Amino acid sequence: MTFDLSILYALNGFTGVSGMFDAGIIFCAVYLPYLVGISFVLWFLLQLSEGDKKQAFFVFTVTALLGTGIILLLHSLYSRARPYVDHVVTKLVDQGGLSFPSIHSSIFFSLALIVYGFNKKLSILFFVGAFVITIARVTSGIHYPSDILGGFSVALISVTLGRYAYKKLLD
Asked: How far is residue 49's CA from residue 101's CA, in Å, rounded to a whole number?
């Protein structure tokens, strides 16, 4: 058994035992992303100066475009089915599409990395949010741990290139 599958089975093994636990995992996998996204918008609107808003918006836009492009490219090169398709796991959340890389991981680690560039202390909350969301998605049987690492890698590359482009073009 691969390390990836071992972690998936270990986390997914906690499901199906307690309805409260399962509800918590479903909340973190499905609804917490909305709260983190709203928090990002509020941070952007209420906490940033006009100059910082320009930079954050540019980096966010470049990150979203690059991240989407990289994910679409990876999906065309590597079609990995979700764990519940190929393995016996408890599926808590309905999710179609391909598994690698995790789009949720890419989005929420991108948000955390963008916030990090402006407010390192606040970014800790966004990193915790991204971590909780992605671990819940593995626990719920819809991602492998390597999907999360792939999504994080897409986020890191996209945000880094977005910041670089801002410095070269607009700074």
From this structure: 34
Give residue 1's pLDDT band: very low, low, confident or very high (50, 70, 90): low
CA distance 135 to 29: 8
Token look-up 């880094």 returns 160
Give the C-alpha separation, 84 to 71, whole Å.
21
Q: What is the pTM of this model?
A: 0.94
pLDDT tens for 6-51 read 999 999 999 999 999 999 999 999 999 999 999 999 999 999 999 9
* Average pLDDT of span 134-141: 97
CA distance 77 to 58: 29
Q: What is the C-alpha to C-alpha distance for residues 107 and 102, in angstroms, rounded to an integer?
A: 9
State the CB neighbour count (10 A cutoff) for residue 36: 19
Tell me, what DSSP letter sits at residue 14? T
- Distance of alpha carbon 78 from alpha carbon 100, whole angstroms: 8
Do residues 75 and 98 lie in contact, with contact meaning Cβ atoms separated by under 8 Å? yes
The answer to whether 166 and 133 are in contact (CB under 8 A) is no
CA 34 – CA 146 distance, rounded (Å): 23
Q: To 5 degrees, how large is the angle CA 142–CA 103–CA 39?
A: 105
